[in-house]
């Protein structure tokens, strides 16, 4: 019984003993930081709200991976708190994208579909690779699950960006770009609430003395 309590309250033994988890987080951090720079520059050049939204998502994920690295092997209470922080990143991203889409609807022009498609394909390759590395950890604690959810949503979002590029190319309108940006915001909103609920449930399940540690 005491060993079970320690495993749940003092931190994930898998995370403590598995150096592969830490290496994967470092890879994910570097990939996401690099793709943030690429997509932000490309999104501004192509006048694509979907690419800019995806760039901001890469930045948020890089911050999330940094937080996850900081709490690897920490007590479950701290890892759950880190997951709460990451859920706020995700929810904040959703709010920013919705606001950006509304602003683009009022003032925007049709983006460059070729640049959208090319950068979207590169981002998909990056996120799919990270998601595959993280797949084995998708059923871990709230912190591990939040990392997996972010990567999964990112890969789905990249496919949507490429579909938006096709839509812009075929119609000459900004609507596909704005619709995809809104869908990405919805994914971030849904994922953020999932992580938030999971982290809250873990914190509530902890003894009060452990939670205050």
TrEMBL record:
Keyword Ion transport: yes
Gene Ontology cellular-component annotations: plasma membrane
Designated name of the protein: Cation transporter
Pfam families: Cation_efflux
Compartmental location: Membrane
Source species of the chain: Sphingorhabdus pulchriflava
UniProt keyword terms in alphabetical order: Ion transport, Membrane, Transmembrane, Transmembrane helix, Transport, Zinc, Zinc transport
TM ranges: 24-46, 58-76, 88-108, 114-135, 155-172, 178-196
Domain of life from the UniProt record: Bacteria
Residue ranges occupied by any Cation efflux protein transmembrane domain in the UniProt entry: 25-203
């Amino acid at each position: 019984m005491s060993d079970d309590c320690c495993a749940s309250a003092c931190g994930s033994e898998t995370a403590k003993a598995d150096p592969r988890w830490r290496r994967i987080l470092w890879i994910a951090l570097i990939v996401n930081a690099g793709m943030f720079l690429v997509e932000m520059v490309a999104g501004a050049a192509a006048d694509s709200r979907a690419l800019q939204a995806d760039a901001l998502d890469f930045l948020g994920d890089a911050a999330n991976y940094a937080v996850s690295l900081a709490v690897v092997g920490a007590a479950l209470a701290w890892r759950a708190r880190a997951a709460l922080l990451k859920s706020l990143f995700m929810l904040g991203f959703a709010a920013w994208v919705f606001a950006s889409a509304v602003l683009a609807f009022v003032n925007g022009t049709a983006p460059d579909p070729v640049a959208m498609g090319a950068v979207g394909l590169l981002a998909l390759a990056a996120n799919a690779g990270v998601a595959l590395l993280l797949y084995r950890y998708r059923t871990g604690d709230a912190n591990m699950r939040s990392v997996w959810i972010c990567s999964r949503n990112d890969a789905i979002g990249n496919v949507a960006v490429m579909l938006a590029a096709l839509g812009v190319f075929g119609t000459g309108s900004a609507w596909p770009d704005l619709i995809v940006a809104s869908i990405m915001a919805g994914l971030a909103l849904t994922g953020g609430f999932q992580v938030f609920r999971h982290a809250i449930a873990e914190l509530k399940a902890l003894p009060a003395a452990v939670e205050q540690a």
